[in-house]
Design brief:
single chain, alpha/beta
Length: about 280
Amino acid sequence: MLRYKRIFLDNQCSNNCLHCTYKLEETSLPDLVSITTSLASDNKDGIELAGGEPTLRKDLLEIIREGRKHGCRRIKLMTNGRSLSDMHFLENLLNAGCQLFDIKLWGSHQALHDQLTRSPGSFFDTIRGLENMLGLPQEKFISVRIQVCRENYADLENIVATALRFGINRIIIAIVDPQLEIHKVLPHVHNAVNISILNRIWIITEGLPFCIMRGLEHHIGEIYTGWRDTGGTDIRHQDFCIECLYNELCPGVANKYISNFGSREFFPVKDNMYVKEVRALHV
């Protein structure tokens, strides 16, 4: 698995997303000195800069340079992409040593994206940021993170098609809404995976357990990054999970989801041809 040390940089954001997974006001922020000290004492060669919106942090470029100075080969920026619409700022990020970008996209068109970010103009800023990325020759790895919720799941295939226009390297489908019934979104997930594969772009999911992803096990993102809860959601196994071949790899299902819809969609996987491969990838 790829391991990243997550550093939370900012509790401000240029968007006001309806389904924001962070409790920004409750988070304390490290200063540059504490970040540098942490980097010096940590052996991880990858850091993930998150927020809020980390590009609003005034010392971001200095933090990236410090990361490089202390041996971080992989520096990932989690962003809504709006600041990347400034070509000069984007070039400075790349030159400082940030080459991995995880950019959120909520819709395939302005009305839907801006509805969910609750920030007029955010769609065009993010799209301009992706266009700027496409136009720069520097080495980089671009992921588009599609945050899936009740309001946009039916647009999923179109969002994937939109992202593919910009020469990206990976698509992440992240389920962020415990009020969204999985059986409704699953056909769209299957379509989105097929669209991406046909275009030879790697696509992974977050927030979908193995029993739901039969036949698509290799696209479960947590196999490669580890299961973690970024939004404070209480996730646990159900009683029947003990019988599942993936019991030790999968953390279970969000309690909020079970409270809303029950556990009838989930079941223990007792026979699967990919178990050995998945376990090997997870190590």
